[in-house]
Write a structure and sequence with these properties.
alpha+beta, Nucleoside Triphosphate Pyrophosphohydrolase, two-stranded antiparallel sheet, globular, 31% helix, Arc Repressor Mutant, subunit A
Length: 309
C-alpha cells in the first residue's frame, strides 16, 4: 500500500465581524482548505512547500506559520473498500497560518469565509447559544448512557459544567459520532436529522476536523502567546483589538477588564495619534509593544468574559 503525504493550511485573517479562513471551491465537492502533496525530493522543508501551495492557489504570501497536527485516520481520503483493494492511504500535515489582512485572493477558486460558517455553534457573542434543536438531538443520541451524557454536558457547557471555548474539536467529534454533521453521513454513520443551521457547512475530506483543531489551538494560544498581533494592522485602537479577540474566542469580553489586561501587561504602546472616527470621541491608536515577540516568553491576553456561560 502506498502512503501519500499532503500538506493542509488553515489560513486565518481578521474580518469585520469575526475571523476569516481561506477556502478553495473548485467544483469538486464541498469547500476545502488549501492543500497539496509533499514532493519528498523537490520540497526542502514542509513550510516552504506549504507557502508555495497557498501562493499558487490563492496568490497570498504567508507570514506566521506553525505546524498543527498530522491527520491520518483510516479512510480520511480513500474509502475503506478501495484501501482493502490496494488503494493508497493519505496523511495530511496540518498547519496554522495567520495573515494581517484578508487580501483578495488571486485565484478564482479561493475565497475568505467566516469560520462560523462551518462552526456556527462556536459563536457565543451577543447572547448566542447552542441551538436547542442540536442539543435535543445530542441528548437523544446520548439517551440513558451516562458516559455519553457526561461528554455532551462537558463539551457543550451544560450545567453544572461551563463552556470552554478551546474544546472545539471535542464538540465537532461528538457531533460526528452522533451523526449530526454531513461528514458523518459521508463516512457511513446514520444521520440523526440535525438542522442545517446547527450542523454548519460541510468541508471536503476531514478538513473541518483540521479547521476545528486550528480554532481550538488559536483560542488557547491567545492566552499564553501574543499571537493576536499577527492579525492586526500596524496601528489599531483597543476596541479594534478587543473585537478581534472576541471574534476568535467567540465570546463577549468585559471592556474595562480587557483594556486593563492589555495595558498592564505591556503588550501595546501608544502611537501618539488618534483614529479618524465618523462618530463619537476620537480613539487613541496603539501598536504592538516594541520587542514583543509572538514566540518568546511573553504572556498572552486573558479573556475576561462579559458574562458567564
Amino acid at each position: 500500500m502506498q502512503v501519500e503525504v499532503r500538506l493542509s493550511a488553515v489560513v486565518v485573517a481578521a474580518g469585520v465581524d469575526g475571523p476569516r479562513v481561506l477556502v478553495i471551491e473548485d467544483g469538486q465537492g464541498p469547500a476545502a482548505l488549501p492543500a497539496g502533496p509533499l514532493d519528498p525530493v523537490r520540497d526542502r522543508t514542509l513550510e516552504i512547500a506549504l507557502r508555495g501551495f497557498v501562493r499558487a492557489q490563492a496568490g497570498l504570501d504567508l507570514a506566521y506559520v506553525e505546524q498543527l497536527y498530522t491527520f491520518g485516520d483510516l479512510g480520511r481520503e480513500t474509502p475503506r473498500a478501495e484501501l482493502a483493494a490496494g488503494g493508497g492511504r493519505v496523511l495530511s500535515i496540518g498547519h496554522l497560518a495567520l495573515a494581517r489582512q484578508a487580501a483578495q485572493p488571486v485565484g478564482a477558486e479561493a475565497r475568505w469565509a467566516s469560520w462560523y460558517e462551518f462552526f456556527g455553534w462556536e459563536d457565543r457573542r451577543a447572547g448566542g447559544d447552542v441551538p436547542a434543536s442540536g442539543l435535543a438531538a445530542l441528548q437523544d443520541w446520548s439517551g440513558r448512557d451516562p458516559t455519553r451524557a457526561g461528554r455532551v454536558r462537558a463539551a457543550f457547557g451544560l450545567a453544572p459544567d461551563r463552556w470552554n471555548e478551546e474544546r472545539v474539536l471535542e464538540r465537532y467529534e461528538l457531533l460526528h459520532e452522533a451523526g449530526l454533521v454531513e461528514e458523518a453521513r459521508r463516512d457511513g454513520r446514520q444521520a440523526k436529522g440535525a438542522t442545517a443551521a446547527f450542523a454548519g457547512a460541510a468541508m471536503r475530506s476531514d478538513h473541518r476536523r483540521i479547521l476545528a483543531t486550528a480554532i481550538g489551538r488559536l483560542r488557547g494560544k491567545l492566552k499564553y502567546r501574543p499571537v493576536v498581533f499577527e492579525l492586526m494592522p500596524p496601528s489599531f485602537t483597543l476596541l479594534d483589538l478587543q473585537r478581534v479577540v472576541e471574534g476568535i474566542s467567540g465570546l463577549d469580553l468585559h471592556k474595562q477588564n480587557f483594556r486593563r489586561v492589555v495595558e498592564a501587561g505591556g503588550l501595546v504602546q501608544p502611537t501618539g495619534e488618534m483614529a479618524d472616527e465618523t462618530r463619537g470621541r476620537p480613539a487613541r491608536l496603539f501598536r504592538r509593544a516594541e520587542g514583543l515577540e509572538t514566540s518568546g516568553p511573553v504572556g498572552g491576553l486573558a479573556v475576561p468574559r462579559a458574562r458567564p456561560i
